[in-house]
Structure formats: C-alpha cells, structure tokens
Amino acid sequence: MGMLIAGLLLVLGMHSVRIVAEPMRTAAIARIGLQGWRGLYSLVSLAGIWLVVSAYAGVRLDSPELYHPPAWARMVTLALMLVSMVLLTATYVPGTHIRQWVAHPMLLGTRVWAFAHLLANGRLADVVLFGSVLGWSIFAHHAARARDAAGGTRYPASGWQRDAVAVTAGVAGWAAILLYLHRYLGGVPLV
Predict the structure, then answer these.
(1) What is the distance between the alpha carbons of residues 76 and 183, in angstroms, rounded to a whole number?
(2) CA 28, 137, 177: angle at the middle one, nearest 5?
(3) Rg for the chain (alpha carbons), in Å?
(4) How far is it, in rounded angstroms, from Cα 139 to Cα 154?
(5) 46-80 burial, b for 16+ CB within 10 Å, e for fewer?
(6) What are the extents of the domains in the chain?
(7) Chain-centroid distance, C-alpha 94
(8) What does the pLDDT look like over 138-170, one tens digit per residue?
(9) What confidence score (pLDDT) does residue 164 get?
C-alpha cells in the first residue's frame, strides 16, 4: 500500500503544483525553460503513474473489503464511464459547447471516472486510489474555475459539429474500453 500512496503523491502532487505552488512553477520555468518544465512534469508524472499501476495491481485483490458494491452499481458505473469518456474527449476538441459549459472537461471527466469506480469497487486499495483521485479532481476543478474567473477566461463554442465529434469519439473510446482495453489494461473483463 505504501507504493500506491507514494505513486499517488507523485502524480497528484505534480498535478497540483500550479494550484498550490505557482511561484515555484514560475521560477522553475524561468530556470529550465517551458520545455524543460514539461519534461520534468512528464517524467515525475509517469513515474507516479507507473508506481500507482504497479502497486494497485499488486494489492488490489489482497486489500480488505470495506464495502460490498450493490448489484446496480455495475450498470450505473458503465453509464457514468460513458459520460466520463465524452468529457475526456471533449478536452481535445476545441470549441465544443461541452467545454463552454464545464470549462475543464478533463477534470470533470476524471471526477466522474473516480466516482464511478468507487461505486463499483469496495476494497481498501480501491478507496485509496479512486478516493484520492476524486478528492484531487474536485480540488483541481474548483481551483481551475477560480483561476478562469480571476483571469476572465471564457471558452466560446464554435458549433455543434465539434460536440458531435467529441461525443462520437467518447462513445468509441468507451466501447473500446468496455469490450477490449479494460480487460488488458485493468486486468478485469467488463463483458
């Protein structure tokens, strides 16, 4: 469990630098340049993700069960994951109404992902992983919205066709995860 927590501290900590230590981030960018910062950010984040994935795979099944998910949780989780995938793909399609409405679809999609997985998984390792990501995503989303408000940042929409692209790509990604990827990446078949 210690490796899981260490990985979470690395990845979520690195993803929180802009929120809690903006002067440090600005100084680091001035010292090593934007590309250097992005490289450091990526390396630390990837190391954290590797630790999280490795540790979670090792402790998931041996972790004590804190609660037994209800039977309906599986279907609700699948539906929430569809919403999450659409939000995540809307992050990469500029000018969507989705981005205009929620401002930071990646963070909201991550929040939905974590909540959905907490519904369907009740072991201690699940609560540590998905609960940490849920708490962080709520914190990060509120901080990003506050930063937007302070800076007057808006996300104008350019047309419904962009939303159609985001929804179509999100549904395709959701189907790929449901039918194939979750089994091989997560170790748990969904169908």
Answers:
(1) 19
(2) 110
(3) 18
(4) 20
(5) eebeebbeebbeebbeebeeeeebeeebeeebeeb
(6) 1-59, 64-191
(7) 19
(8) 999 999 999 999 999 899 988 899 999 999 999
(9) 96
What residue has token string 């990837």? 46
CB-CB contact of 131 with 114 (8 Å): yes
What are 65's strand-pairing partners?
123
Task: Say if residues 88 and 170 touch (Cβ distance below 8 Å).
Answer: yes
pTM comes to 0.88
Which pLDDT score, from 0 to 100, does residue 31 have?
Answer: 93
* Res. 180 pLDDT band, cuts 50 70 90: confident
Model pLDDT, residue 191: 66
Q: What is the mean pLDDT of residues 17-34?
A: 92
Specify which residues 123 forms β-bridges with.
Answer: 65
Average pLDDT over residues 89-114: 95
| DSSP helix/strand/coil, 36 | helix
Instruction: Report how far residue 94's alpha carbon sits from residue 156's, in angstroms, rounded to the nearest whole number.
Output: 9
The two three-digit tokens of residue 107, written as one number: 């963070």
The residues near 14 (Cβ < 8 Å, ≥ 6 apart) are: 41, 44, 45, 48
DSSP string for residues in 94-135: TT-HHHHHHS-HHHHHHHHHHHHHHHH--BHHHHHHHHHHHH
Look at residue 189 and tell me whether its pLDDT is greater than 90: no
